[in-house]
Amino acid sequence: AGWTYRLIVETLLGVRREGKSLRIDPRMPGAWSGYAIDYRHGKSVWSIDIRRGDDGNDPAATTLDGQPVHGTIELVDDGREHSVCVILPKQRAADVAVDPQGSAP
């Protein structure tokens, strides 16, 4: 069960603990508009919301409790709930895989 959890959370959802930090590297399938997960560290809960932007020109951005974050997120055990928001660029038509017959999956 532990390996299945790690496979889903770390590989598919892209949320991985590295020491006392959390790295978020989503690999979201093109058909998904987003997802949310809660990650517990000690007595703290990290509510992570990963979404595609509304516009194809939206830059990727990550915020922690409303403040911009670059790189990993430092995990603290302060007993509070923290909010992480990750906005990914909207998938463009050119990003959608096309099969050899020329039709989208």
Itemize the secondary structure elements and their pairings.
Blueprint: H1 2-12, E1 15-18, E2 21-24, E3 34-41, E4 44-52, E5 61-64, E6 67-68, E7 73-74, E8 81-88
Parallel strand pairs: 4-8
Antiparallel strand pairs: 1-2, 2-7, 3-4, 5-6, 5-8
What does this structure look like?
With 105 residues, this protein is mostly beta strands. It has a five-stranded mixed sheet, with no helix packed on it. A three-stranded antiparallel sheet has the order 1-2-7. It is globular and about 35 Å long. The two termini are 31 Å apart.
Placed side by side, the strands forming the largest sheet appear as 3-4-8-5-6
Task: Bin the strand percentage.
Answer: 35-45%
Please bin the fraction of helical residues.
10-25%
The coarse overall form would be globular
Q: How can the largest sheet be summarized?
A: 5 strands, mixed
First-residue to last-residue Cα separation: 31 Å
Helix-strand pattern? HEEEEEEEE
On the 0 to 100 scale, the average pLDDT is 82
User: How many helices?
Assistant: 1
